[in-house]
Amino acid sequence: MNDSAEVVGICRDLLRIDTSNTGDPQTSKGERAAAEYVAEKLSAAGIEPVVHETLPGRTSLVARIPGADSSRGGLLVHGHLDVVPADPAEWSVDPFAGEIRDGYLWGRGAVDMKDFDAMVLTVVSQWHREGYVPPRDIVLAFTADEEAGGKYGAKALVADRADLFEGVTEAIGEVGGYSFTVSNDLRLYLIETAQKGMDWLRIHAKGRPGHGSMVHDDNAVTALAEAVARIGNHKFPLTVTPTVRTFLEQTTELLGVELDLDDPEKAIAKLGPIANIIGATVRNTANPTRLDAGYKDNVIPGRASATIDCRTLPGQHELFYEQLRELIGPDIEIESRDPQPALETTFDGDLVDAMSAALKAEDPGALAVPYMLSAGTDAKHFHQLGIRCFGFAPLKLPADLNFSALFHGIDERVPVEGLEFGTRVLDRFLRGC
Ligand SMILES: [Zn+2]
After folding, report:
1. Nearest alpha-carbon partner for 285 in 245, 316, 262, 263
2. Ligand 1 mean position to 112 CA, how many Å?
3. Cys-Cys link to 418, which of 80, 112, 350, 395 (CB 3.0-4.6 A)?
């Protein structure tokens, strides 16, 4: 079997295993079946994975491929096996059928991120057939529960089995390495070197409970609603971090767009399909997502609560809380729940050079540029082990594809050619790492 047919077949098999993560262990499914499939592929490639299960069915795998020089720091290559749910009624195809149509492989997880899982499995299978040994230790991790924050996956792995990652210094995973077409002979490949921090915090307003028919000037619902509206309408101050500055300087020059670093949003708006990705990384954001109050139509409750999805820029965690406190005043309680830090590393060194070289070898028009992801990935957990994390899951995309809309989107699909391209780039990169 040639490698291109192999990666498509593996990705298709993975897409056909429904690994929907609802955020509730009772209704999430399929991770063990996917892990068993992956374990079988690894075994066939001479690699024996360690199985890690936090709850029955919430299965992750870790495996180490010894390198030619194990005294060098290891490289972690990680991908999650779960996907967000998909409603078949909204899709043009069955989201779990792995259909190939119009040059695309369709299905929930096609870009997030069974495509990369399949590339990794294809590359290591190919190595096994050749008897190839990588230059340094490669540690593979296939995780459960990324889509709900990693509690039953990467987070637990890092807490329980840090030993499996001993000596690992760097990591690659989602979300980066995909192309943005500037012209026929120039494609930017966005390498993720930073991630915003996240905190799905709760705010609580307290008041005097009472009868809904009375005059009442201490209503928790009113106080909460005012705070929520202030947050929802607020724009936090603009901050251009080193990653975003490098990205903007490089891309705007290439695109011939005028860049004013005091007002970069004008330039960002002209970046086409990646405008919304970059636009989310120049300020802290706070979006109200849930409201909870009351239990009866004519009773004023003593307490009202809301969830706020907060995303913070690297180094701004403390400042953000000060800003939020100032915005909503002293009487609203803020409950921070398991905040996850922002990450930022520099865009330099041998590993970055290896990414650039691998891309360039397969696409002479490739230019690698750093960018910040506004969301979070398993990298947040692996970073806790002191690992320098990058988003590099290479994909060459058609110029007109709105890639970011496919993540968690309807009709998620990956171009078959892009998948094959990514496999070749990943292979080259790992051989050169
Ligand atoms: Zn993902």
Report:
1. 316
2. 4
3. 395
Compute the distance from residue 109 Cα to the ligand 1 centre, in Å.
Answer: 8
Strand-pairing partners, residue 368, are 189
- Backbone phi, psi, residue 371, to 5°: -150, 165
Angle between helices 220-233 and 317-328 (to 10 degrees): 130
What is the CA(261)–ligand 1 centre distance, in A? 31
Helices (H), ranges, 174-285: 220-233, 242-255, 265-269, 275-279
**DSSP 8-state class, residue 238:** P
pLDDT digits 0-9 by tens, 117-139: 999 999 999 999 999 999 999 99
Distinct helix (H) and strand (E) counts, the chain: 12, 19
Ligand 1 centroid to Cα of residue 120, in Å, is 15
Which residues are the active-site residues? 82, 146
Chain-centre distance of CA 254, in angstroms? 27
Higher pLDDT, 266 or 114: 114
Distance set, CA 163 to CA 45, 47, 160, 227, 395 (Å): 23, 18, 8, 45, 32
Task: Give CA–CA dist 114/415, Å, rounded.
Answer: 13
Dist. CA 258–CA 265, nearest whole Å:
11
Residues with a beta carbon under 5 angstroms from ion ligand 1: 112-113, 174
Q: What's the pLDDT tens digit per position in 281-339?
A: 999 999 999 999 999 999 999 999 999 999 999 999 999 999 999 999 999 999 998 89
Rounded Cα distance between 187 and 179, Å, is 6
